[in-house]
Amino acid sequence: MDASLTAEQHEIRRTLRELLGKRCGSAELRAAVETPAGHDPALWDALATQLGLPGLALPDKYGGVGCGTLELALAGEELGHALAPSPLLATSVLAAPLILALGSAAQREAHLPRIAAGRLTATLAAPVDALALTCGNDGDWAGGGRAGGVQARTRDGGWRLYGEAVRVLDGHSAGLLVVAAHCGGFARSRVRLFLVHGDAPGVTRVRHTAVDVTRPLGRVQLRDVPAELLGDDVDVLGPLASAGEVFAAHLACEAVGAAGRVLEMTVEHVKRREQFGRPIGSFQAVQHRLADVYVRVQAARSAAYYAAWAAGREAVGGLALAQALDALRLAAAEGIQLHGGIGFTWEHDAHLYFKRAAGDEALFGPAHRLRAHAADTAHVFTEKGVTA
Q1: pTM for this one?
Q2: In the chain, what are the domains?
Q3: Which neighbouring-strand residues pair with 141?
Q4: Degrees, nearest 5: CA angle 17-100-14
Q5: What CA–CA distance (Å, rounded) separates 246 from 310?
Q6: Where is the Acyl-CoA dehydrogenase/oxidase C-terminal domain (predicted)?
Q7: Which of 215, 136, 147 is nearest to 180 (CA)?
Q8: For residue range 199-225, what is the model confidence (pLDDT) as tens digits?
Q9: Is 58 exposed, middle or buried (0-12, 13-18, 19+ CB in 10 A)?
Q10: Between the CA of residue 183 and those of 95, 127, 132, 196, 350, what are the distances in Å?
């Protein structure tokens, strides 16, 4: 692995940071999260038309740019730096790769070009356990003698879905839903993936109230909804776990971007804020605290880049995500502490980064469970095939 970024990768970061600097400042961010969609549609259109961001990792035969997971993760780092709410995570990191990997030729042709052009947003409606981040994805949610979640039944030669999915990324606004549903009854239940249009009859969607307003979540209710089986009748647990690896690496880069920005904000503040006739940044204790944050952020960035590069080769996404979440939590906490009273106010952006740290850890962690699952998967504490 060449640890240095290419000229093209540097350009992706530079152009995206420049665009977000103009279009997603503090005022624009706060206005965007108050919209029904939870993001700025005009900004999403600019990201799609000017930078081709939704199709960055899609093949050019479907209108994509043809880059890889690392380039998409670098874009995610810049979105995390600005806390820019967008459908990129749900659409391009979760849903599009599943359609590309499992969809039929007709399904890929129907949806991927529209996703690449930014005309269609999509998401995965499934429990977080499906991505195998903190536990195996073959447990109760995938059958295991139980039903629950979303059920699929055949009727009149087609599939119908019933049930509810909660805490779905952009679930309240995505135009296409990739829904994980149980088939086969209680004892022989198995999971398949289905395509459902967001405005299909019987679909009810509500936006969740969330700690992190920059990460919009929705609840999806399905009542006798017509659905299309994604691809052939194949085992989807492996592809979902693979999607979880890419998702974890992308989230890690987002967290690193957010941690880097809150560190920048804090350094700028301690250079200006004076106490006892001198900037508080001149005190050695403050310098030591910020140096610790800097080291943690840089280490997390290296791990996140490696996980994005190694996606599909090594299962290290969970470890990188754990390290990035720890770095973001530390950077956000120190940021609020060193900003003093102003850091706790609604008017200051520091609390938004703290909420991103708390929200992501609650949704996709916590860090110790990510590490524990990685250790179990690698048989760190047991011999392969032997349980403790």
Answers
A1: 0.94
A2: 7-120 (1.10.540.10), 123-235 (2.40.110.10), 238-377 (1.20.140.10)
A3: none
A4: 10
A5: 9
A6: 249-375
A7: 147
A8: 999 999 999 989 999 999 999 999 999
A9: buried
A10: 21, 16, 20, 16, 45
